[in-house]
Structure formats: C-alpha cells, structure tokens
Design goal:
By secondary structure, this protein is an alpha/beta fold. The protein has 13 helices and 16 strands. It has a 7-stranded mixed sheet with strand order 9-8-10-11-12-15-16, sandwiched between helices. Strands 2-1-3-4-7 form a 5-stranded parallel sheet, with helices on both faces. The chain has a two-stranded antiparallel sheet with strand order 5-6. Strand 5 and strand 6 form a beta hairpin. The longest helix has 20 residues.
C-alpha cells in the first residue's frame, strides 16, 4: 500500500511539473492558435480602465483573426482580473504562463502590479508589454534591466517634469501642495520626481500630505492643505481617489485647482464634474484628437454607443501593434524570440511612433500633454516633452 501511494505521489509531482512548464523556458503556443494573455483591473477602483482595455484587446484580436490571424494562425486572448491588487497580478501572470501557456502578456495598467509580476516573467521567460505603468522600476530595478518587462507609456521622470513645468512655467504658480497615496508605487514615485523638479525650478512645496490606499476620510490632510494657502494641489492618484478627495475638499471650502497624473484621466470624472470642473490632467495623448475618431467608432460599434473609450484603449491598441510586429519579426510564437524582437521593431500607433529602447525597455521619444476637465469634456491645453 505504501509503495502504491509513493508511486501515485511521484506521478502527481511529475504532472504538476509538466503543468508549470518545469519552472523555466519560454512559452510557445502550439497547434493552430497563438495565445496571448492580458491582466488588469476589471473590478476595484480602476475597473473603468481595465474593462475598456480588455475589451479593446478582444476587439483587436477579433479583427486580426478576421484578417487571417498572425503567421497563418488564429490568436486566442485570455484575460484575468487583478482586482487592482499586486498579489492578484502575480497570481494571474503565473496562471497565464504556467497553465494557459501564453507566449506573451499585455498589461497591467498599474506600476505596482507590473513590478510585482517581474519574478514570474523572469522565471518563465515570457515577455510582458505594460500599457500604463509609468514607475521607473517596471523595467529597471536597482540599476538592473528587467529582461522580460517592456512598456509603451512615458515614465514618471517625464510625467513629473510635465507636472512641474505646467504649474511653474505655464500657470506661473510658485507654490503647490501635494496629496499622495503612500501605499502606491506610482503615487510615491511621481510625487518624488515632481517635488524635485518643481523645487529645482524655484517652486516651493507648501504642504505635503499622504493617505493609505482604501482610506475614505481626508479631512485632516485637506485642512492642512487649506491652511497652506496653496492655489494648486498635485494629486498623483487614481481617478476614484481624486473624486473622493475633491468632494471633501470642496465641502471644506477649498477652491484650489487640482492637477492629476495620467491615472486621473477617465470618463468617470464627468460624473463628478461639479467638483472637478477646471481641473487638469496629464495624459499620453489628447483624448479629443480627431485621428482617434475612427477607432472610437469601431469600439462603440462593438460595445454600444454609450461605451466609454478610455485612454487605456489607445494604449493597449499600440501594445497590440507592437506585439504583433514582434511576433511577425520573430517568425514564431516562441516567447524568447518575441522578447528579442520587441526592441527590433517599430510601429506607428495611435499614441505616436513606438520604438522600444534595448537599454531600458522604454519607448523612445514619447511626449505628453495637459488637458483640462470641463463640463464640455476634455480641452487640450498644451504639449510638454
């Protein structure tokens, strides 16, 4: 009996190792399909971003399959919800590479989640193209290049410069307050860079306040900001966090202008336009660019005329174009071959020309812009490199 049990246990172990790919080696979609994974927030505070992003990718895959697929094969996309949580992102990534055997992953749209996934990608040697993960550590951690992490968005040093330049040079304001999420990599990193750049220009941070993700009460922090007399508050936070903060700020009589980073840009803002009218947002592209209209109509035709086309739609669009070009360059769905090809291809996307640097796995020459949130929608203000 013991001998039989030992044999059964050994068999189970072998099956487990087989299912996990043996803990290493690049994935390669076999048969008549090429499998690609996506991870992002389908629930939680950034659900609007993730929903639009995943739906866009599904639409692009559908269109590409109707056009004949890639390398004569159909594409299969597998999507998992990270619930806005870094550990869930790790779990989703491991499931995609070990169980589903995808050759590549697209997403997530959050720095903390993208950073957390690094170990999984490195172990299984599967590339990931992050859509909107701007923290420097996503692709370079402690001076070490992350070999399987790539992204198509600008990074926080650039975004911090845009924020500081807009306040100091464009708005001509020399004092600013900051309210950041101390538990979020994106918020921490962007705050540090913004403050350094703003102070180097001659500006002064008159109040720096923080909260922890999940907090719902901001009275103490806002009271100190009100006492500082700041006319503008930089909030490198998600759109839902800023909506909650803005409601409490206006209730306290704070009329300071709000400037948010790219995580602020969402159609959800217009549900709270009474407290956000006149705010500014840093973005990867102007959401009113007429060149985006053709895709917007394709998206609405697929998901309904009332479907919101978030900024993430355009970011995942360009990620898919880059991935497709890399697969074609590689000539196969081998994960390592695709990884090698990502820095060798160049595509013209909706957010501009996309060419990934082999040195830091960031897009070369990306710029950003500032838009104002108004009752009539987004208004383009200025482009800042």
């Amino acid at each position: 009996m013991r001998k039989l049990t030992a044999i059964l246990l050994a068999a189970l172990m072998l099956l487990s190792l087989s299912a996990c790919g043996g803990g290493g080696g690049g994935g390669s979609s076999g048969g008549d399909t090429i499998k690609i994974g996506w991870v992002g927030s389908l629930t939680g505070e950034q659900a609007a971003f993730g929903t639009c992003e995943s739906q866009t990718l599904k639409l692009l895959v559908k269109q590409q399959n109707e056009a004949g697929g890639i390398l004569g094969k159909q594409i299969e996309v597998i999507c998992y919800d990270t619930k806005g949580d870094a550990q869930e992102a790790v779990n989703a990534a491991k499931r995609l590479v070990a169980q589903d055997k995808v050759c590549s992953i697209i997403g997530p749209n959050a720095s903390g989640q993208a950073i957390a996934m690094q170990a999984v990608l490195n172990e299984y040697k599967v590339p990931d193209i992050a859509t909107v993960a701007t923290n420097e550590k996503v692709t370079v951690q402690d001076g070490q290049l992350q070999p399987y992490n790539f992204r198509i968005c600008f990074i926080d040093p650039q975004q911090g410069n845009i924020a500081a330049s807009f306040i100091y040079d464009y708005l001509k304001l020399t004092e600013a307050a900051v309210l950041m999420n101390i538990s979020d990599d994106y918020s921490q990193g962007l705050t540090k860079i913004f403050e350094q750049t703003f102070q180097q220009k001659g500006g002064k941070i008159v109040a720096e306040e923080a909260f922890t993700g999940g907090d719902t009460e901001f009275t103490a922090q806002l009271t100190k900001i009100k006492e500082s007399g700041a006319k503008i508050i930089f909030m490198p936070n998600s759109y839902q966090e800023i909506i909650n903060i803005a409601k409490q700020a206006r209730a306290l009589g704070i009329d300071a202008t709000i400037l948010g980073g790219d995580a602020f840009a969402s159609d959800v803002l217009f549900d709270a336009i009474d407290v956000l009218d006149g705010s500014y947002v840093i973005n990867h592209l102007s959401l009113n660019d007429p060149e985006l209209e053709d895709f917007r109509q394709q998206y609405k035709a697929e998901y309904g005329q009332d479907a919101a086309v978030e900024m993430n739609a355009y970011m995942v669009y360009d990620s898919f174009l880059l991935w497709k070009a890399a697969v074609e360059k590689a000539g196969s769905a081998d994960s390592q071959a695709i990884t090698d090809a990502i820095t060798q291809v160049e595509v013209q996307g909706l957010t501009g020309n996309i060419k990934i640097s082999a040195e830091d796995h960031n897009p070369i020459g990306k710029s950003g812009c500032v838009e104002q949130v108004t009752k009539d929608g987004y208004v383009f203000i200025t482009k800042i490199s």
